[in-house]
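Render this sequence as a predicted structure.
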Amino acid sequence: MSIRQYEAIKSKSARFVVGLMSGSSCDGIDAAFVRIKGTGSSIRLKLIAFATTPYTASIRERLLSPKLDT
């Protein structure tokens, strides 16, 4: 990312971000939708929405298997 791109993002009044995570328990995917305002020590985050979608038993079994088929 260039300095100009960083400055353009930094100057926005708010940014909206979606974060996705699946932990080592492989129980599902968590998604968080957040609003970010400011930068550095004045940064403020607001959680807009959060959801968890569980894996089906077959997907969880496949994720936990020693060798995944490609």
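Summary. Residues 11 and 70 are 43 Å apart (CA to CA). Strands lie at 15-21, 28-37, 44-54.
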